[in-house]
Description:
The complex is a heterodimer.
Chain A: H1 2-9, H2 11-17, E1 34-40, E2 46-52, E3 63-66, E4 90-91, E5 97-103, H3 106-115, E6 117-122, H4 129-134, E7 143-147, H5 150-155, E8 159-167, E9 179-184, E10 190-194, H6 199-210, E11 217-221, H7 236-249, E12 253-256, H8 259-265, E13 272-280, E14 286-298, H9 304-313, E15 323-332, H10 346-364, H11 368-375, H12 394-405, H13 407-418, E16 424-437, E17 446-453, E18 459-462, H14 472-484, E19 491-493, E20 496-497, H15 512-538, E21 547-550, E22 553-556, E23 559-564, H16 565-574, E24 580-586, E25 591-593, E26 598-600, E27 604-617, E28 622-633, H17 640-658, E29 692-695, H18 720-730, E30 740-741, H19 746-756
Parallel strand pairs in A: 1-12, 8-30, 10-11, 14-15, 18-19, 28-29
Antiparallel strand pairs in A: 1-5, 2-4, 2-6, 3-5, 7-15, 8-13, 9-10, 9-12, 11-20, 13-14, 16-27, 17-18, 17-24, 21-22, 22-23, 25-26, 27-28
Chain B: E1 5-9, E2 12-16, H1 24-31, E3 50-57, E4 60-67, E5 80-82, H2 84-87, H3 94-102, H4 111-124, H5 130-137, H6 148-161, H7 171-177, H8 188-193, E6 209-211, H9 217-220, H10 224-227, E7 230-232, E8 241-243, E9 247-251, H11 256-260, H12 263-268, H13 272-275, H14 282-285, H15 290-295, H16 302-309, E10 313-318, E11 321-326, H17 327-330, E12 331-333, E13 336-337, E14 344-351, E15 357-365, E16 373-384, E17 387-396, E18 403-404, H18 406-412, H19 419-432, H20 443-467
Parallel strand pairs in B: 1-5, 6-7
Antiparallel strand pairs in B: 1-2, 3-4, 3-5, 8-9, 9-14, 10-11, 10-14, 12-13, 15-16, 16-17, 17-18
Helix pairs in contact in B: 3-6, 4-5, 18-19, 19-20
Amino acid sequence: MKKIDYISKDYDRYLHLTGKSEFVDDMNIPSDTMYASVFYSSVAKGKIKNIDFKGADKLHNVFIFTAKDIPGENQIGGIIKDELLFAEDEVDFVGEPIGVLVAETREKAEEYSKKIEVEYEQLEPIITARESFLKNNFIMPPRIFESGDIVKGFKKCEYIFEDKVEFGGQEHLYLETQGAIALPLEGNNLKIISSTQNPTAVQRITASILGISNNNIEVDVLRLGGAFGGKEDQANAWAVIAGLAAYKLKKPVKLILERSDDIKLTGKRHPYSIDYRIGFAKDYKIIAYEVIFYQNAGAAADLSPAVLDRTLFHCNGSYFIPNLKATGYSCKTNLPPNTAFRGFGAPQGIFAIESAIFKSARKLRISPQKIQEINLLTEGKVFHYGQVAKNCTVKNCYDSITRKINISKKEKEISLFNTGNTEFRKGFYIMPLTFGISFTNTMMNQASALVNIYSDGSVSISTAAIEMGQGVNYKIRQVASEELGIDISKIRVETTNTSRIANTSPTAASSGADLNGNASRIACREILNRITKYYSDKQKSNKKLRVEFKKEQLFINGKKQEQHWKSVVTELLMNRISLSAHCSYATPKIKFDKIKNKGNPFSYHTYGAAYFEVTADISLGTFKLDEIVIIHDGGKVINKVIDTGQIEGALAQGIGMMTMEEIIYDEKGNLTTNSLSKYKVPDIYSMPDDINITFYQNNDFESGLKGSKAVGEPPLVYGIGAYFAIINAIGFNKEINYIFESPLTNERIFNYINREA
Amino acid sequence: MPAKIIFVLNNKLTETDSNPAITLADFLRYEKKLPGTKIACREGDCGACTIISGETVNNNLVYKNLVSCILPLNAAHKKHIVTIEGLSGDNLNPIQEEFLKQGATQCGFCTPGFINSLTSFFLSSPVISYEIALKYVAGNICRCTGYFSIKRAIKELVNKYSPELINFDTRTDDLIRLDIIPGYFKEIKARLINITDTKSQFPKDNSDFLISGGTDLYVSSYPAIKYGNVNFIESRGKEPVSETDNSIHLDASSTIDDILTSEIIKKYFPAISELEIHFGSKQIRNRATAAGNIINASPIGDFTIFLLSLGAEAVFQNGFQKREVLLKDLFLGYKKLDYKKDEILEEIIFRKPSSKAFLNFVKISRREHLDIASVNSGFFVEIESGVLKRVGISAGGVAPVPKFLNEVSAFLEGKTLSGENIDVAVNLAGNEIKPIPDARGSDVYKSGLMKIILKNHFDKLKKFVEKN
Lengths: 757, 468
């Protein structure tokens, strides 16, 4: 019996473990469903001269739609309206959709669409951000964040260093590829089932593509098989295309991208090219830091402007820098539009400052830790965007790591191991973490929840949150269960549906649990308030009673009553009191001036520190992670299993980003690393067997969800530490004469070693 | 009339006349409506589609984990095919429950594959240890957990169940008793034996595709395969490895796993169990065959590189005609072989190593496991009173073919292990190779690696000599 209880408490995971959980491609669909396959540009830049459908357009029950078949506006851009759903006369990247072919089976759709031949007049593509910068080819005007006085600042410096940094992109590699099912409803209406983090965007864009209203479109999301930002904006096109075809044909249409297309057609984490200049006082305090980011945005804006802003917000890493100037250029290139990816621009900014510190330390012949320790943010220090660091625990976490590891002893041990060792070298690094929580676009920090309590006492909650493995639905159930005082097994979180919850913000920016958990709590409290009022009225009490449930038993003013949850529910319904509540939540105290680039953009910061130790084979140019120790400030953690899982998963993704995951485009804009056999993500042997994660005891933190902090993205930043631990090992005690480039693949390690020699 | 494919799918006898060339994953998902088997990459590189396949070998029921996205439906014939649906009841089994406790499932997409690989480990590994369990799941990619929780779950399971699973002969009964597999597994052996063979075994003429394991062809040539004329060469049930007085014989239709884990190979090449995990994943080793690896002629085929260094010989058969070719003479150009279409690669033969033999295999790739090499290399030598004999050095990723370094090997024959000789050998190798830049590295990197790997071979050999 105990077993069944366990399952009902964690039903979602029970479904995963038994293979019963459904993803878009698993769902039962009507038997007359048609299948869609997108055909797309094979050149990175060119003019479309002719499209030869190879007879497919004349086949029975085969339909082709291109730009000219769009009844509304051919536009899917979000922040900037600069992206077409289907190319019209020109194409700007390999993989840009030109049209869709619909057939009765998936095989036929794939077969015919792959045969379509498009003739182009090819033009010279731009592949890198620096090329685009030289040609003044930008997504938007540059963004500049400034604090102090950068010119005066540098004048005061004792040591000044400057260099370049190259940051490589990253493929999301969510295991469930992009996909959607569009079902025509009566009249003009459509229902779209999509694997998206952003159902409202799917709804809005489908409506505008079709020239109908948002209320004609219902978007429903059950769960995603991973997303990591890759389904925030980039899920739109496929859902909209399925919607367009279904709308035209008045038949259900399913569109699932095969992996070989998904990896080619969708944007990735932004590669950045970076120039920096850093200046120190004699005591190694950072006095001035000037940095220029050249973001490779790809062919359209997508979320690049917001990503670039987060780079600028995080360009100080975990350090206090009094005089700072950061300039960001969003450079337009002929690659698929790059997009959100866990960390959202922060890793690029943080990698640059960490590179600057590491290299300067080597030039100054001191350890990077020395510079880190002196400059770490502390309580009350002001970020370059004007926010004051509060409840700032980064130094606490950093110092705890230093003590836990016993760094000075460790340094000696490693030095002893390395000296004279011609085969292997060890290295370590401590990576501090400071990550701002909130959408930097303040308006997006809102959510609502609909809580329905049924006559049997079971509870249904709808929110804007999308479950994609991060456990947001469980956290919502958990806080609702605590709020209502009933067992978690009574609470179900519904699909995310635009008809139940409107105008949703995407589940992104690590904010899903904060926003939707709080909205759910408020809605539960609203219902409890009604119950309180009911008993206050009933007892004709002048003073408001304290009504609560403990383990489903009713307590009034602390006294146990006869009634329990279910009987109270019945009683209220008998007395015509609504047991449904729809309430909203908006993150308090945040605002940001986008002209001056000053304000309080973040509700709070997540802090932490991670220790990495590696052993490198200095002849073969390979490495192994020996040890990872993390001290993470997650606030008052409400679910250790989930938060630990987020830290571990983000860490692995961060390590992958910094080491083996390499995106290569050739000079013609074709993705070379276009399959799982060429693009490698960490496997079970890539990670050490053990990891030591401690949650920093932060009892003073009150924001977030019941004092717990957002955890989705921040720990990804830890992965940057692996990079410098390896550099530390291979370049043990040496000055570094090469430009830091990520990822640090075995090939780069090999080259660095041999350049050093 | 196409022959029927008959097999036990979970607990159900299944007959189908579907195209035997479609992938088993598609058949399970879209024809049998068993969507627990996920498709994420369609190239056997992520393990989300992992199923368990059982068959009777020498009257034993043998299970293995396979990736069904590159597995022909044909391969299911007379097998017990187990999907996640066939392992799951109303309650969680102990593996599933441990995953739940440790938070080892997040988005859930990879989860059925992991559960299947681990179940396959319990079904087929005589020794229950953490290290061996990892080998079984190393072909399963998880993008959410970072594997830490999965590893914790595996450790717990191994600690808990290894004392209960000592006797391999009673494994099925033990696993049923422990609820790790459902009770119907008990009857499977008898049910499989009862399947009468209705499937045609005669090869068709003029086939477009000759498929053995298919682990490469299903990646490179699907869906063309399903529309083409296909000949399947399933294993002929021969001993994977046998020995005569002087030589070792590998049955070409046997899988890499069966060969590498055979007692004979372990006896003569004790280091092989360390090398084993560099040859694809468990799922791939369980399916890929020696013949496939050789005939595919990939310039970086790990197993071929290994065999080349041993001076192996390929034996082809055409009716009663037999033809023997040294492996090093078989590869003529990129994917071009000295081999005729009507020939079948029957076996691979190499001389037994002497008691003073040394073997080293090095593979450098972007990711250490389940990856295609940037450069790989085999080094075999017998050393007698300080003199090198029977030298074989092979290298992949440095030429259009899996390369036997003729000049270097010949030069070292009869030489001592002096610094001077090593330098000459390294230089000679530089002339023999011509790497092509690709996603796995630049030509400069590959040339550089080749040198370092050669030095690594010699360093290891020196240590071996010192020790003996």
